[in-house]
Write a structure and sequence with these properties.
Elements lengths: L2 E4 L4 E6 L12 E4 L4 E2 L2 E2 L5 E3 L1 H9 L9 E4 L7 E3 L7 E2 L3 E6 L5 H8 L2 H9 L11 H6 L1 E4 L2 H40 L11 E3 L5 E4 L12 E7 L2 H7 L2 E2 L4 E3 L1 H5 L2 E3 L4 E4 L7 E4 L3 E3 L3 E5 L8 H13 L5 H4 L6 H6 L1 E3 L3 H21 L1 H13 L4
Parallel strand pairs: 3-9, 15-19
Antiparallel strand pairs: 1-11, 2-10, 3-6, 4-5, 7-8, 7-10, 12-22, 13-21, 14-16, 17-20, 18-19, 18-21
Helix pairs in contact: 5-11, 5-12
Length: about 375
């Protein structure tokens, strides 16, 4: 087994961004915060822009990352990671930590290990607040990571790069499938808000029973959290699209009793966070109070796949109209009263066949599980 070393001992620089927000000029040097960092890269287009003078101040204060540095979000959403590949001038706010590896530590390897459970578990022990929303620099410096020889680090990073590329292709496949199915839906059924085909309309409350999720209290109590029962999170929906498999958060059996258990095949909708985001559960899971579930659907009148796409179109296509505005402040009563078009069930079944065909494609890849397995094996020296 490899030595476990503190991050502070293998980085020539471990600091954070500026502790003040420079004026946004709308032009100039990019200035990034947590919201400008994602798995897809750094958002230099929509971020703030600062003057050269402000950038120089940040640079002198080591708040301007360089090529090969690793960014780690420590405020807001803790644990976002990005290895800087852009050789351009930019600065960051203090919500982002800047790690500059020494010659014994490969940047790409560090990026992957920072995303691993090895680091996440240590970070969660040093969190402040009821959820993992902030970690201080001194605690980041104390986090221990496995340090194999440099050549082995590069080998691990290369393997995980390839696995990550496959994972991204899966995400692209999901998006393409969703886009195609949306086009088919509109062609078959028309716009669910304007209802150009004149289908009969019924309120959602006439078609199913709507139930709200619940959450065990207090939050983070080990009696309730950290078990084997999956609990749905909004990030699961944004990752998976139409058919969601919760993989982020888990409850104990005792915690599940204090939550809302929902069966596979049920339509679920976020009513906080990304309000109106809708999917279908691929497995049995619990939902917290930021979700509702559409139970006991009248299968003779409406199919889950039809309801899911109808609600998503009402959210995304008509956000500026009255129907879309509903999604800004959803209540259970409002949802029950919403009326949706109901095409013949035979036509819905034809759409259902297409949905199953296209949603099975990304599921069969199962690359998220592959990547997680490879990561665990890599950092335990078994790859």
């Amino acid at each position: 087994m490899w030595d476990m070393v503190k991050l502070g001992d293998v980085c020539t620089l471990l600091t954070d961004g500026t502790h003040y927000t420079p004026p946004d000029l709308g032009y100039g040097i990019p200035f990034l915060t947590v919201k400008d960092v994602s798995d897809d890269g750094l958002d230099f287009y929509n971020c703030s822009k600062i003057s050269i003078e402000e950038y120089q101040k940040a640079d002198i204060g080591n708040s301007a990352p360089k090529l090969g540095d690793v960014l780690f979000s420590k405020d807001g959403t803790v644990g976002k990671v990005y290895v800087v590949k852009e050789n351009i001038e930019f600065a960051v706010l203090s919500s982002l930590a800047i790690l500059r590896p020494n010659k014994e530590l490969d940047s790409s390897y560090l990026g992957y290990v920072l995303k691993s459970p090895i680091v996440i578990l240590q970070a969660s022990k040093n969190k402040t607040g009821s959820a993992l929303r902030r970690i201080i620099l001194n605690d980041i410096k104390k986090i221990k990571i496995p340090l194999p020889p440099l050549a082995e680090q590069k080998r691990i990073a290369t393997i995980l790069d390839k696995a990550d590329a496959i994972r991204r292709k899966r995400q692209q496949a999901i998006k393409l499938a969703d886009d195609f199915l949306r086009a088919v839906f509109l062609d078959m059924f028309g716009d669910p808000v304007t209802n150009p085909k004149g289908w009969e309309k019924l309120s959602i409350g006439e078609l199913c029973t709507i139930v709200r999720g619940s959450s065990p209290r207090p939050k983070e109590d080990p009696r309730f959290y950290g078990g084997l029962v999956p609990r749905l999170m909004v990030a699961d929906l944004t990752r998976d699209g139409k058919l969601v498999t919760p993989k982020i958060d888990y409850l104990t059996e005792e915690g599940a009793k204090k939550s809302r258990f929902v069966q596979a095949g049920t339509v679920v909708m976020a009513v906080s966070g990304n309000v109106g985001l809708t999917s279908i559960l691929a497995i049995d899971a619990c939902i917290h109070d930021g979700f509702i579930a559409f139970n006991k659907l009248n299968s003779n009148r409406v199919k889950p796949e039809f309801l899911q796409e109808t609600l998503m179109l009402m959210k995304t296509t008509h956000v500026s109209r009255q129907a879309g505005a509903i999604f800004q402040n959803l209540t259970t009563t409002q949802i029950k009263e919403m009326k949706i078009p109901l095409p013949p069930i035979e036509l819905q079944n034809k759409y259902l066949i297409l949905v199953k065909k296209f949603t099975e494609i990304p599921i069969k890849l199962s690359v998220d599980e592959l990547f997680n397995s490879l990561s665990q094996r890599a950092f335990s020296g078994k790859l």
